[in-house]
């Protein structure tokens, strides 16, 4: 995936920025994409926050302090789900469609470098994910009364988990786009994977509610670690006791996300083609 001789590094980057602007315009002009990858986590947070609002606070210490509302409990899961939807689901379906419809084959006949193409896709995921998270936080704080962290160290923790997570999900989305055989099958292939991972990774259900064998299976995949890392940002420290090991294990969060980042990168380099497989 090296740039062609006619493309200097600066030109590759500028072409990538132009590609990102094109991708962003296309993204926000597609209502179904915006709903299912941009607004869906916010909608789910609203539903969970309202539906379980009568439960009151959960996870309080024996002295009655340290509890959180259900809306607060679901915030980290929705952040993790947003990165999964924006990176894996959106890119896997989008690239598979572009490949099946011949759009990538036409791009392959232009001076556009694959690196510039990927910069455009990754930049689109980054911008939309930042906007989505900002909107999610604003909605959670203003509409649901969620108390966001005030400790700068927690926001620094959030920053590196967010960046590592978004790179990992972007690369995995590019890699997964090679699996569907056509644009028609893309959604049918990708959505069950994405939905299943959310249910077993502590996004919709408390991870401690799952049987141990299912927790072990979920631990193979990156979403479980991304959701756990986000819980380490937004939930009180004593909630770590509910994790499988009884701790946040941020080192393991970084390690597992890093492993999947490398897997996604290698798979993307090996499988990406400008045209659909026959």
From TrEMBL:
Keywords, comma-separated and alphabetical: Antibiotic resistance, Cell membrane, Membrane, Transmembrane, Transmembrane helix, Transport
UniProt KW Transmembrane helix keyword: yes
Protein topology in the membrane: Multi-pass membrane protein
GO biological process: response to antibiotic
Major site of localization recorded for this protein: membrane
Single GO MF annotation: ABC-type transporter activity
Top-rank lineage group of the source organism: Bacteria
GO CC list: ATP-binding cassette (ABC) transporter complex
TM region(s), chain numbering: 34-53, 73-96, 117-146, 158-179, 186-207, 250-272
Domain ABC transmembrane type-2: 32-278
Compartment(s) of residence: Cell membrane; Membrane
PROSITE patterns: ABC_TM2
UniProt xrefs under InterPro entries: ABC-2_transporter (IPR052902), ABC2_TM (IPR013525), ABC2_TM_bact-type (IPR047817), ABC_2_transport (IPR000412)
Family: Belongs to the ABC-2 integral membrane protein family.
The protein's name: Transport permease protein
Organism: Leucobacter denitrificans
